[in-house]
Amino acid sequence: MSRKEVDRLGVIQAVAGRQLKQATAAQRLGLTVRQIKRLVRRYRQEGAPGLISRHRLRRPNNAWARPQRRAILDLVRTRYADFGPTLACEKLCSRHGYRLSRETLRQWMMADGLWAGRSRKTARIHQRRPRRACLGELVQIDGSPHDWFEGRAGYCSLIVFIDDATSRLMALHFAPAETTEAYMRTLGVYLHQHGRPVALYSDRHSIFRLNRPDREGELTQFTRALRTLRGMTAIAFTRTCGTGTLDSIAMTGRLPAHQPRSIYIVYVSLITSGYGGDGRSLRDEGL
Predict the structure, then answer these.
(1) pLDDT digits (tens, 9 = 90+) for 226-235
(2) Strands, E, within the chain: which ranges?
(3) Full-model pTM
(4) How many Cβ atoms are within 10 Å of 194's Cβ, its own excluded?
(5) pLDDT at site 276
(6) Which CATH architecture has domain 139-271?
C-alpha cells in the first residue's frame, strides 16, 4: 500500500467503527460522502486490501501494443542504430508515421540495449567555512560594480567591508572602479572608526594576489601595505571555501545587482544622504 492508502485506511477504519462521521472523513480525505460509503463497504467486504487502487498493475489505455513496439524497435535497430532517441523519434514520425514521445522511445531503447542512459553527475558538496567568533577577528572585503545611480551618474563600484562574525557592514565606499586606491581609502576609514582587524578575507583579485605562476608568492601593493600594520594578515579564498555571505545574502557582503533589496537599502542609507562610506561627498568623488 502507498502512504496515501495507509492514511486512508486509518480514516476508513474510524468510520467503520463509528468513531468518525462520514462527512468529516470526506472532508479530511478530500472525497465525497458517496466515495466514503463505497470505501467503507469495500473495507467491510475485503478488509485493508480492498482499499488498494484497482488501477495498479493494469495496462494503460494509451499503451502501445507489443507488436507495434517490436516493429518500432526493429526499425531503430536496422536503420537508426547509431541515432539517439530524439533524432530517431523524429525520423520514425516523419518517415514511418509512428508518433510516440521521445521519452517513451528512450525507455524502450534502454530496455532493449540500444541506448545507454547517462548517469547524473554527483553534486559536489562543499563544507562551509565556520564564522569567526569575535568582532574584528576577520573582515570580508569585496567590490560590487553596478549602475548604482540608475543613469544619473557614471557606472561605479561599491567597496564593502563586512565583519565575518556579526555580518555587520563596517565600511562602504563608492569608487569609479575596483582599484588598489579604493581599497586603501576604505581600509583607512575602517581603521579610523573601528581599529585594526586581525585579518582581511578577500577573493583572488589581482589587487590582493599575483595570479602569475612565475611570480607566485610576491606581494601586491595592497598586501605590502598590510605588512606595515603588524598583526594583520590577508587571506585569499576561492568561491568553494567561502561562507557564501558575500555572494548570496543581501547586505551581508558583496552586493549583487540582481538583489533589489540590497540596492534599495544602499540607496536609502548612502545615496540619499549624499555621502560615501568615508564621509566625503559623492560630488567630491566625481560621482
Answers:
(1) 888 877 888 8
(2) 139-146, 156-163, 169-175, 199-202, 233-236
(3) 0.48
(4) 16
(5) 46
(6) 2-Layer Sandwich (3.30)
